[in-house]
Design a protein that fits this description.
The chain is mostly helical. It has 12 helices and 5 strands. A hairpin with a 6-residue loop joins strand 4 and strand 5 (266-270).
């Protein structure tokens, strides 16, 4: 009797295949249901990111529009800079307006322009004071006072006075052909007396209209007797002086300075031009008359009485 052949064992393999098939079916049927929420979350996150990016782009665009300077403001600032440069304000007197800053506005531009134009130029530096004074003194046509120079240069009057005194001493010490003197309440450059003949030959050349002897005598009387009336001048000179006095007034050498209380006659005195021409600061610096008087002056005075 033949023994039956051992049965093949495909059952376990078949069972494994069945299990794999069932898992495959389960994956195909159930996994999509569980994956749908995950895909939705990812899609929502992507949408939110896009919205955030769009919002950021919108904010940046809005900021760029707000930050962009207005053409009128820029033109106004440029005009102010040009005007300030023409006035000599090369350096900004206030912090420069930053047109790229987010808080700029037309009001800020106007405030900047007003502050820049209102700020005065700085005073002259002490190192530049001497050459600046020399430049001014070369162009003045009459003595200029310390106060006037201090106002122009924006420095203390005491510093101006001290600098002028030192400058005058330095010109004398160096033997310059010109001198800085205080005359008629101010300062002016004069040529030195020892060079007067050469200056006269070069400049005047005999064409200067000189005062007549009568005018010089009348001017001397006014200088030493001021304030003095016209009748008193005529009495001292012994001749009528009306025409001479009119000439001296016209040339600015003497001027009226009130009236005499007793008679009401006009009083005359010398002017600042007289002091300027003589290079004097006041009439107190006039030379004394005693050396020029005759020895018998008392006898002459008694005879006139």
């Amino acid at each position: 009797m033949e023994e039956p052949a051992a049965p093949a064992e495909p059952a376990p393999l078949a069972a494994g295949q069945e299990v794999a098939a069932e898992l495959s079916d389960l994956t195909e049927s159930e996994l999509p249901e569980t994956a749908e929420p995950q895909d939705a979350v990812e899609a929502q996150d992507t949408a939110e990111l896009q919205d955030t990016g769009e919002a950021r782009d919108a904010v940046e665009a809005l900021a760029a529009v707000e930050d962009e300077p207005d053409e009128e403001d820029v033109a106004e600032i440029v005009a102010v800079d040009d005007l300030a440069a023409a006035l000599g304000l090369d350096e900004p007197t206030v912090p420069r307006l930053d047109v790229d800053a987010p808080d700029d506005s037309a009001e800020a531009a106007v405030a900047y322009a007003g502050a820049k134009l209102a700020a005065p130029p700085p005073g002259v530096a002490e190192a530049d004071l001497v050459p600046t004074l020399e430049a001014i003194l070369l162009v003045v046509d009459e003595p200029v006072s310390e106060l006037t120079l201090a106002e122009v240069l924006e420095v203390p009057a005491e510093l101006i006075a001290g600098t002028l005194i030192d400058l005058s001493a330095s010109y004398t010490r160096e033997g310059r052909g010109f001198d800085l003197r205080r005359a008629a309440g101010g300062w002016r450059l004069y040529t030195r007396a020892e060079y007067a003949p050469y200056v006269e030959r070069f400049v005047l050349d005999g064409q200067q209209l000189r005062l007549t002897q009568a005018s010089l005598e009348t001017l001397a009387v006014v200088a030493y007797k001021q304030p003095v009336t016209r009748s008193r001048i005529s009495a001292i000179r012994g001749v009528n002086c009306d025409g001479v006095i009119r000439t001296l007034v016209t040339r600015g050498m003497i001027e009226e300075c009130g009236t005499e209380p007793e008679s009401g006659a006009f009083l005359y005195r010398t002017t600042s031009l007289f002091l300027e021409k003589l290079g004097l600061d006041s009439v107190a610096q006039l030379p004394p008359l005693a050396p020029f008087l005759p020895d018998n002056v008392e006898e002459i005075a008694d005879e006139q009485r």
